[in-house]
Write a structure and sequence with these properties.
The chain is mostly helical and 482 residues long. It contains 21 helices and six strands.
Amino acid sequence: MSWHWKELLPIDRYCVRTDEKPCEGDQKVLSLLYQPLIGSMAVSLYMTLASKLEKDSYWSDESNHQELMLVMGAALNQIFEERRKLEGIGLLRTYKQAEEGSSLFIYELQAPMSPKQFFQNDVLSVFLYNRLGKEKYRKTRDRFMLDTIDESSCTEITSSFNEVFASLHHSEMVLQNQEAQEMIMAEEKGKGFAQRPSGKDPFLDQSSFDFELLKADLPAFIKTEDILSEEAKDAIARLAFVYRLGPLEMSKLIQQSLVGGETLEISELRKKVQDWYRFEYGPEPPALAYRTHPAKHRIMEEKEPVTEEEKMIHFYESTSPVMLLESISDGAKVPLADIKIVESLILEYRLQPGVVNVLIDYVMKTNNMKLNKTLIQKIAGHWSRKQLNTVKEAMNLAKEENKSKKALAEKANTKQGAASGNSRPYRPQVRKDKLPKWLTEEQESKEKVSTDSGRKEMEIEKQRFEEMMRKRHENRKNRGES
């Protein structure tokens, strides 16, 4: 069940706004740098919105989302999810005006980063490296590189402004400038300049990092208010997000990065963090991390779990897939191949994190604790077509598939027993995996109910038979007396 209708309806109107339309260079950046991270559908949505802007126009006419669905050939829930990707990576800002009967959405397109900005970004450059691999990443980076001018071998002869232009007399300049400024400012009230803005960094919420614990762990002689500027806190939050660092680990690395015991150099901190990660995990870059199950798709968000099944739903909803794999392996490092499988489930099959948790747990518990990639992709394709959004839906589907799997196995065993001429079904000795309780408790409950029901019917039938025999005996006795 999709809940996008709570946020967006086909009849809702929208218009597009931008400070600067995408240029040819932006198209190259979107295709080569952003697309590997957000997918072709999100880039297509960005370009479709940009095409709504007429030549020399920075606001589009109003349209409705039903028209957008027809143009893109996509369902509304898919457009909604692709829009969120654009927002998350910094390519779109969305505003909503609630009106009677429908809503008006203002989609403000943000210019993509310049190649230099992108490759210097701690978050995006690392994730792009992970998606493309070393060789492809290097070739992509080279496409945006150009040779610098060797200033030591030549002399710059560029003319300066005052060499080309003459200056007005001071009295003329002041008068004309003052009159012009007053006239222009009166005409431009409520307007802003069209400009070529710098690309927007993806927004990272600093509240996800415990800065209070970090401050408490730093030595008393370090003046935290001096070293933890807003710029430094932003860099710390980003590095902690990418390299999965906690406040205590970050505290140690900050202390190693202080210059003269007073100044925190961001570049030095970045180097220390990267060295720490290589020492702990080897040369492979961090994989793209994912958040836990979205709050709008949680059913245990404001409810205290009571039953065993509710506790499992709460666990799946509040745990990221990578953390689930770590908990299954008792905290051991998760292999990169397994992390890539998780990435594909979220990026390619568009499954929610909680749904991925159910899928991982189900496959591992039914396959000797192995992540069978072929089996996972087969089930993921089915679940993706079902458009599962809640953990409960995924668990119910897993129960159905497990039941079908068991029925097929019993049918195959019966056929094999009949082929061998044995009157009893063939039951090979196979190792039984310990399945999750939520997966089996319903089946066990049904079997128990079925067994109890059978016993009750047998008891009733027995009583009926005994009553029949008693009456028959009485009838014979009566006929003998007569």
